[in-house]
Amino acid sequence: MVLAFVLGFVAVLVKSDLKLPSGLYTSISIYLLFAIGLKGGVALSQSNLSTLALPVLATLALSVITPTLAYFVCRKIGNLGRVDSSALAAHYGSVSAVTFIAAITFAQLQNLNPEGYLPALVAILEIPAILFAIGMVMKKEGNKDLRPMIHELLTGKAIILLVGGLLIGWISGPEQIKQVQPLFGDLFKGALTIFLLEMGLVAGARIADLKESKAFLIGMGILLPIVNGALGAYLGTLAGMSVGGAGVLGVMAASASYIAAPAAVRIALPEAKPGLYLTAAIAITFPFNLVLGIPIVFEFAKWFAK
Known about the structure:
Layout: H1 2-13, H2 22-45, H3 53-77, H4 82-93, H5 97-109, H6 118-140, H7 147-155, H8 157-177, H9 181-186, H10 188-206, H11 214-238, H12 243-254, H13 260-268, H14 274-305
């Protein structure tokens, strides 16, 4: 799967004409998000809901800490303006759904079976983090109407598919879900491989945008995920999660959103520069996490569990 991502990235660098049909990217992203939600819902139906309390608190803490840290790093070290700092904070406080899926797959390949309720934590981390990050600068500038942005977040496809799939899987349970196992179970990893090939193409195309604040964006896009990932893994361990679950939570904290956050920033902070936040999230942090960040964060989780 990682090699498929590298192939897409290299294809752009050598100026290949390789391109996936635009509709295929949308279709596979819908499939992956819904499949993750279904699997999580089935696992949730077999779990004790009382075990959710501490992981939810840990996730809410991350939704405040990670965007705050990103904002002050951008302001104090990157010398960026409030609007661009807030936009980057929204991306780095939120979650990359694809990185989350890759972390779940990595955990399973390592026989570190993560908790089934993790898809629910994606929504819990994503929405408050974006609201908190953007709300900081909107409040300072006297604009307090967050309703359009909240609507965009709550009705975005990532949240609808993850939470909707979670509820369907939870209601249906393991017996009923067997009816769709060939599609939503057996084909999952193959679909993820094709999707990561496309993401390699997208990330490679964004490299050309690394013009403004290049050194800062590269440093932040690599170091901040390591710090956030270690923090997420530590809080997950404190919350009583397994090594696999704490590792996935750490990866969630380490990731940068490029689906929900850009949509929210486009509405709330239209003056923010896409060349900064999209390039950092897609061209730097996403490739780093996929190749090195995920294994590093899982090593943190194993170390904290000792």
